[in-house]
Specification:
By secondary structure, the chain is an alpha+beta fold. It is built from four helices and eight strands; from the N terminus they run ααβββββααβββ. It binds a DNA duplex through β3, β4 and α4.
Length: about 200
DNA sequence: ATTCGGATTCTCT
DNA sequence: GAGAATCCGAATA
């Protein structure tokens, strides 16, 4: 499997968010590779986007990675308990990012790995990785992996795979403070995939 | 099936 | 000091 190159990430977050669906997120740990398919993403569109941590060009210790050149991680702690994994996109100085909201274990090994890191009652496999906090727990992703290059085979990287044809677009989740931006359809997921966290409400 | 509250700590003002 | 790009299990209906 070949890593997605940096050029892939030097574009708008919405574009990258759509194209990341179906790609393979790989966690290397104890000399083994665990592979997961990306099935749900959200785009955060930089200084104009009221839902973004970088709204108004806000530059702090936390948001700093978003201002770097695309192709690295942006990982933060949320609600004091959970981590969220983002992929930085666009060139240096343009703070776009894509939140990885859900992944699907690609094989039995990945499934067992996820299970061993998630101590929950539910026996449904979907509950292992169908949310941004859940997948970070399942793949043992924390701030030690923040601001790291994901274009090279490493502890955490992304490999190319065939593009997804049937993509659903929808509003982003849980951003009530974002005013008019909470209605932007900047969440994307693979149609009919059981690991998607929230389905379209109608 | 849907709603609800508690957990927990980093980050910024 | 307040609030956060969430999750889980329990309670309700």
């Amino acid at each position: 499997m070949n890593p997605l190159t940096q050029a892939f990430y030097l574009r708008e977050a919405v574009t990258v968010a759509k194209e990341l669906l179906g790609k393979i997120l790989i966690r290397q740990i104890n000399g083994r590779d665990y592979c997961f398919k990306i099935v749900e993403t959200e785009a955060y569109m930089g200084a104009m986007d009221k839902a973004s941590h970088a709204y108004g060009g806000k530059f702090t210790n936390r948001t700093k990675p978003m201002f770097e050149r695309g192709g690295i991680t942006y990982i933060y702690l949320i609600y004091g308990m959970y981590y969220c994994l983002n992929i930085v996109t666009q060139d240096k100085g343009i703070p776009h990012a894509v939140l990885i909201r859900a992944v699907e274990p690609l094989d039995e090994g990945a499934m067992k790995f996820a299970k061993s890191n998630r101590l929950i009652k539910s026996k449904k496999n979907e509950d292992l990785t169908n949310g941004p906090g859940k997948l970070c727990q399942a793949l043992v992703i924390d701030k030690t992996l923040n601001e790291k290059d994901i274009t090279k085979e490493n502890l955490l990287w992304i490999a190319d795979a065939p593009s997804i044809m049937h993509i659903i677009k929808d509003k982003r989740i849980n951003i009530p403070y974002a005013m008019e931006y909470q209605d932007m359809e900047w969440r994307f997921y693979i149609a009919d995939n059981p690991f998607v966290s929230v389905l379209k409400n109608n």
